[in-house]
Write a structure and sequence with these properties.
Shape of chain A: globular
Strand order of the largest sheet of chain B: 3-4-9-6-8-7
Largest interface: A-B, 27 and 22 residues
Largest sheet of chain A: 6 strands, mixed
Low-confidence stretches of chain A: none
Distance between the termini of chain A: 18 Å
Radius of gyration of chain B: 30 Å
Strand content of chain A: 25-35%
Number of helices of chain A: 7
Mean pLDDT of chain A: 89
Low-confidence stretches of chain B: none
Helix content of chain B: 40-55%
Radius of gyration of chain A: 17 Å
CATH class of chain A: Alpha Beta
Number of helices of chain B: 16
Order of helices and strands of chain A: EEEHEEHEHHHEHEHEE
Oligomer: heterodimer
Distance between the termini of chain B: 26 Å
């Protein structure tokens, strides 16, 4: 069952004199439980595509349907709410709230959803234990390594029980060991809890783990390979 | 959690928060202190010249205030007294007969203000017993008088001496009399102390040949805040073709003017101080907003509504300034209380100019919740204005652009 459908998606930037066609007629679908990577060289349009999927950017034309909702026409405030309840984000630079502890960072998003305190606390503990940080609940981001911060970010992304998680270059700032560890955690969560992960990356280690690799060049999809061999 | 984030953000840049909080503390202490001294001196001025002398409201014969002649006095009648006493809020009244006469002792003469009073009723108003520095207080039936200490010094007389008075009585009759001095009072207003002669009302009526006559009725009531209301109600009740009630502001416009012009000067000074503080607070808010644009954009990206984020930044500014206000008040309050109990005594030319207004040359502070509340309101207004910038920045924020910041 498709949870995401992109139809004839275009994104044209004309901030400068030269018009840039960042995304050029993309048609794409994602099913629940996918572990997919959107790859391509710098400037290929993969991050733009990911941003539009996450409702952070709006397409110039085309349609984005997530769980039967066309998000291309939602207002700014509706989009924020949509993101809160449907999408988890993992950013390249972790982007945790610096004044909150690991536990509070994960709880924060559930607080925005208005979930009850005992539910928030139980899920936070469960998620941070799942990413191997059960003993660092009360540490502030500044006291955690890059790898640990990114694992907190993954826990935060999952806290809202999203339909899917978007991760933009999640391993770009991590060393090999931390990358390996983070990818193992995400793969496990994907397999055990059927959580959909979509990455934008040019990290070969992520591509290796992904079960579907979508290659983007000049705003167009040039290949869409599933690891079982289907294209 | 929003308040928790706001609170922790204050501790994030400790130096900057400390500078902002300190500037608020300084503003509160300085403004409360200055305003308390200002209002304290006005209150002393009003208390000396009004509360303990003329009263807050007086009733006169209609023409009396424009032409203070005995011929414009009132012949006391029951209806007038009942009308005044039955007015809502009025607790009592004191009748006075006032006019000028020439006083002589030995070879010295001096123009004096003769005030015929009810010695019993005036105990709660003029409170002359406490001002008595020599001799005894007068009784209603006494044939003797009290005089101001400076007048006694000028005429070089003391208790037991006889003062000769010469003036004009009712309907042009001569007023002549010689009265033994029963006591000497020190009036707080030096100008009054130099010329006052108190005599029992009955004796003054005999002296001025004005039987049952008075010139003014001091209306007594509890709260001076209701001065205008009581005056209006009296005027509604009295036969205004004959009598009129006046507030102290109408009776002493020069004092009102002095207070008003001085108050404006003080407020202007404080306004400048607050403008400097406002720029400081705005600077902090501006830096805080610029530094955290990316953080704000992440919060919006993961699902926080912009309006909630605006609230967090507002909480931060409010918390920081509330802390400054609380410490500022805690520091200012003991100072204000101390100088209320131990007022600064003025000397030199400044003291003389104050004395000329009929006021004791001391500078006490006024302990008034209103002064403290006003400072809180001003700081909160500054905070609200300063919070407009981050609110605007957040509401207009392009999330994607700020994420790349």
């Amino acid at each position: 069952m498709n949870i995401i459908e992109l139809k004839d998606l275009h994104k044209i930037y004309n901030e400068t004199e030269v018009e840039v066609h960042a995304v050029n007629g993309v048609d794409l679908t994602f099913e629940k439980g996918e572990f997919a990577a959107i790859v391509g060289p710098s400037g290929s349009g993969k991050t733009t595509l990911l941003n539009m999927l996450g409702g952070l950017d709006t397409p110039t034309s085309g349609k984005i349907t997530i769980n039967n909702t066309d998000i291309s026409h939602l207002s700014g405030s509706q989009l924020i709410d949509f993101r809160l309840w449907n999408i988890g984000f993992v950013f390249q630079a972790y982007n945790l709230i610096p004044v909150l502890t690991a536990k509070e960072n994960v709880e924060f998003i559930m607080h925005l959803q208005g979930r009850k305190k005992n539910e928030r606390e139980a899920r936070t503990k469960e998620l941070l234990t799942a990413v191997g940080l059960g003993d660092r609940l009360n540490s502030r981001p500044s006291k955690l390594s890059g790898g640990q911060q990114q694992r907190v970010a993954v826990a935060r992304a999952l806290a809202s029980k999203p339909k899917f998680v978007l991760a933009d270059e999640p391993t770009a700032n991590l060393d090999s060991k931390s990358t390996e560890n983070l990818l193992d955690i995400m793969e496990r969560l994907n397999k055990e809890e059927n959580i959909t992960f979509i990455f934008a990356t040019h990290d070969a280690r992520v591509m290796k783990k992904a079960r579907r690799v979508i290659t983007v060049e000049d705003g167009k999809i040039v290949s869409d390979v599933r690891k079982n061999g289907d294209e | 959690m929003n308040i928790l984030i706001a609170w922790r953000n204050i501790g994030r840049n400790k130096k900057r928060s400390l500078i902002t909080i300190s500037s608020v503390i300084l503003a509160v202490v300085l403004s409360v202190f200055t305003r308390s001294f200002q209002e304290g001196s006005y209150s002393k001025m009003i208390e000396n010249a009004v509360g303990k002398f003329t009263g807050y409201v007086q009733v006169h014969q209609k023409e009396y205030w424009a032409d203070k002649m005995l011929d414009n006095g009132i012949e006391v009648n029951d209806k007038l007294i009942n009308d005044i006493l039955s007015t809502k809020g009025v607790e009592g009244l004191n009748m006075r007969l006032e006019s000028f006469s020439l006083a002589a002792f030995g070879n010295s003469t001096k123009g004096t203000l003769i005030m015929g009073i009810d010695p019993v009723k005036e105990e709660s108003m003029l409170d002359l017993k406490s001002k008595l520095i020599k001799g005894e207080y007068i009784n209603s039936d006494d044939q003797s008088i009290l005089i101001g200490s400076k007048l006694s010094e000028y005429l070089k007389l003391s208790v037991g001496d006889t003062l000769v008075l010469l003036g004009q009585g009712h309907w042009g009759q001569s007023a002549v009399g010689a009265y033994p001095i029963k006591g000497i009072v020190k009036m707080p207003a030096p100008d009054i102390d130099r010329q006052i002669v108190f005599m029992p009302l009955k004796l003054s009526q005999e002296y001025f040949s004005f039987n049952n006559g008075i010139t003014s009725i001091v209306v007594k009531f509890k709260d001076s805040d209701y001065t205008q209301t009581i005056c209006d109600e009296l005027n509604a009740k009295l036969d205004t073709t004959q009598h009129t009630a006046m507030t102290w502001q109408k009776m002493s416009p020069e004092m009102v003017q002095v207070i008003q012009s001085d108050r404006v000067g003080g407020i202007l000074m404080i306004a400048i101080l607050y403008m400097i503080i406002a720029f400081g607070i705005f600077g902090t808010v501006l830096m805080m907003t610029e530094e955290r644009k990316k953080e704000f954009s992440v919060m919006i990206a993961i699902g926080m509504q912009k309006s909630k984020l605006v609230l967090i930044t507002l909480y931060e500014t409010v918390l920081m300034n509330a802390l400054g206000i609380a410490i500022g008040i805690a520091l200012a309050l003991p100072l204000v209380i101390y100088f209320n109990i131990n007022p600064i005594e003025m000397t030199g030319a400044e003291a003389e100019s104050i004395e000329k207004l009929g006021v004791e040359p001391v500078l006490p502070t006024l302990i008034s919740a209103k002064i403290f509340i006003n400072q809180i309101i001003i700081i909160l207004i500054i905070t609200a204005v300063a919070a407009i910038y981050p609110a605007f920045a957040i509401l207009k924020m392009k999330v994607l652009k700020s994420l790349r910041h």
